[in-house]
Specification:
Oligomer: single chain
Strand content: 25-35%
Order of helices and strands: EEEHHEEHHE
Number of strands: 6
Distance between the termini: 38 Å
Radius of gyration: 17 Å
Largest sheet: 3 strands, antiparallel
Helix content: 25-40%
């Protein structure tokens, strides 16, 4: 099975004064604005790093749901945050790390089993596989 999804970006102008928009095939984003200021200057709006973080958090959490199911477990709730680090290097900017933080309520899971299954999901999620950055994870069970 092969699935292809499409997203697009449009940009007009120079780097700092230009304006861009992002769209997805599904319509979840349709001409959503972004720019230098939303990426580097803390202005409210989206940027590629937060979108990548959303994709990674979503992918990892779905992968863990599958892996939990294979172990006979079902999550009551899982909340994942992805913190994406963009750093200036000699060769330009690079995404150097993604840190996943997961808080989960999984009836019947013990901490050791949960940590093992979460690590398996981190390694196996398709977004993790495409990233060439250090990917770390804090996973905790809640009562």
């Amino acid at each position: 099975m092969k699935i292809t999804k499409t997203a697009s970006a449009q940009w007009m102008g120079g780097l700092k004064d230009g304006k861009g928009s992002l769209s997805t095939e599904s319509g979840a984003l349709s001409g959503h604005p972004y720019g230098f200021n939303t990426r580097f200057e803390g202005v409210k709006g989206t940027n590629p790093e937060e979108l990548l973080g959303a994709a990674h958090a979503g992918c990892f959490t779905m992968a863990l749901s599958l892996i939990l199911g294979e172990a006979g477990l079902t999550a009551e709730r899982m909340d994942t945050t992805a913190r994406v680090t963009l750093e200036k290097q000699d060769s330009g900017f690079a995404i150097t790390a993604v840190h996943l933080t997961l808080k989960a309520k999984v009836p019947g899971a013990d901490a050791a089993q949960f940590a093992e299954l979460a690590d398996k999901a981190k390694a196996g999620c398709p977004v993790s596989k495409v990233l060439n950055a250090a990917i770390s994870l804090d996973a905790s069970l809640e009562d």
